[in-house]
Amino acid sequence: MGTAQQQKTTATTADKTQKLGWRKSDTVWMLGLYGTAVGAGTLFLPINAGVGGLIPLIVMMILALPMTFFAHRAMMRFVLSSANPGADITDVVEEHFGKNMGKIITLLYFFAIYPILLVYSVALTNTVESFMKFQLGIEPPARAVLALILIVVLMAIVRLGEQLIVKAMSILVFPFVAVLLMLALYLVPHWNGAIFANIIPQSGNTTSIMMAVWLILPVMVFSFNHSPVISSFAVAKEKEYGVNAERQGSRILLRAHIMMVITVMFFVCSCVLSLTPANLIEAKAQNVSILTYLANHFDTPVIAYAAPIVAIIAITKSFLGHYLGASEGLNGIVHKVARDNNKTISNKALNRFTALFMLTTTWAVATLNPSILGMIENLGGPIIAMLLFIMPMYAIKKVPAMKKYSGTISNVFVTVIGLMSISAIFYSLIQ
C-alpha cells in the first residue's frame, strides 16, 4: 500500500512538474506582490540612498535584488513547511515552535506594522502642511490641529469598511507607480554630476561611509517589504500547485522583485542625480518625502503640484493598508491576553478600544514630529528584519521540514543582512 501511495505521489509530482508553466493567476500575484511593496516607503528611500554619497547608493543597487528575493523566498518556504496545507504564518510558527512563540510572533507582527503607521501619520501631516504653505499659499493651522483633522479623516475612511479600502488601494497602486516613473523620466534633464564629485560622504572619512551603508539597510528592508502578504501568497500557490508550490512561487517572486528593483532604483537614481548631497541632507532635516522636497526645489508647475498630491495619495493608501494590519494585530493580542485570563471581550468594545488607541497615538506622534527616517532606521526596519530575515533562517536550522534548504550561501547572506539591519536599533544609543 505504501509503495503504491509513493508511486502515486511520484506520478502526481512528475505530472505537475511537466505541466508547470505560467498562468494568469501567477501574473495577478506577481503584480500584487509588486504593488504591495512599492508604496509610500519608496518616497523616503532616495533621501537615505543619496545622502551618504555615491558608495552607499552603489551598495544599495547591488544588494537590492538578492536581499529582497532571498528573504521573501525564505519566508514563503517557511509557510510552505507546515504539515497542514492552508496554514498561515502564525499557525506555522505555533506548529514548529509552540504556542508561546506564536504569541511572540503575533506581538512582533504588530510592532513591525504599528511603527509604520506612526511614520505615515507624521509624513502625511508634513506633506499636507508643506503643500498648503508652499503650493496653495495658505497658512496651515497649528500642527496639533492639522494632525488631528487628518487622522480623524483617515479614521472616517477606515469606517467605510475593509473591502472598500483594499479595492481602493489595489486601484491606486499602479497609477502611483506610473506617476513615479513619469516623474523619474521628467527629472532626467535635471541630472547633474554632483554626487560623483562627492564620492564619499561630506564628513569625508571611512567611518561615515560605513555608517551610511549600515543605516541604508533598514530603510531598504522597510521600502521593499511585502512580508504581510507572503503568507496568503504561499497558501494560494500551495492550493494551486501542490508539491510544486515552492518552485513556482520562487519564479513569481523573482519576476516581481526584478520589476520592483528596476522601477524603484530608476526612481531613486533619477531623484539622487537631479539633486546634490546637500539637497538630500536638507530634505532629511525637513523630515519630508522626496516628492515634497522636489515640489519645493524645482520651480516647475508640473512637479510643484503633481508631486505632493501623489505623495498624499501614496501615504494615505499606505496608512490605510497598515491600519488594517495594525488593528488586526492589536485585536489579536488583546484576544489572546483575555483568553489566557479566562475573560471575554466583545468585538464592539475591542474595535472601539483599538480605534481610540490608534487615533490617540498616531495624533500624538504626528504632533511631536519625530524624524521619519530615524523611526524607520530604529524601529520599522529592524523589527521587520527579525521576522523576514532571521526567523526563516532560524527555522532552517531547527525545523526538520526546512533542513533541505540548508547549506547555501544565500542563507549566510540573508542572516548577515538581517543582523546588520537589526543592529541599527543601537544607532540611537551610539548617538
Key terms:
single chain, 431 residues, mainly alpha, Amino acid/polyamine transporter I, 19 helices, 0% strand, globular, disordered N terminus
Task: Please describe what this structure looks like.
It catalyses: L-serine(in) + H(+)(in) = L-serine(out) + H(+)(out). It is found in: Cell inner membrane. It comes from Photobacterium aquimaris. Residues 1-17 have low confidence and may be disordered. The protein has 431 residues and is an all-alpha fold. The protein has 19 helices and no strands. The longest helix has 40 residues, at 301-340. It is 80% helix and 0% strand. It has one domain (22-430): Amino acid/polyamine transporter I (Up-down Bundle), CATH 1.20.1740.
**Helical content, roughly?**
over 70%
Specify the CATH class: Mainly Alpha
* Biggest sheet overview: none
CATH superfamily: Amino acid/polyamine transporter I
Query: Number of DSSP helices?
Result: 19
**Rg from C-alpha positions?**
22 Å
Q: How many discrete domains?
A: 1
| Shape verdict | globular
> DSSP strand (E) fraction?
under 5%
Keywords: Amino-acid transport, Cell inner membrane, Cell membrane, Membrane, Symport, Transmembrane, Transmembrane helix, Transport
Organism: Photobacterium aquimaris
Catalytic activity: L-serine(in) + H(+)(in) = L-serine(out) + H(+)(out)
Subcellular location: Cell inner membrane
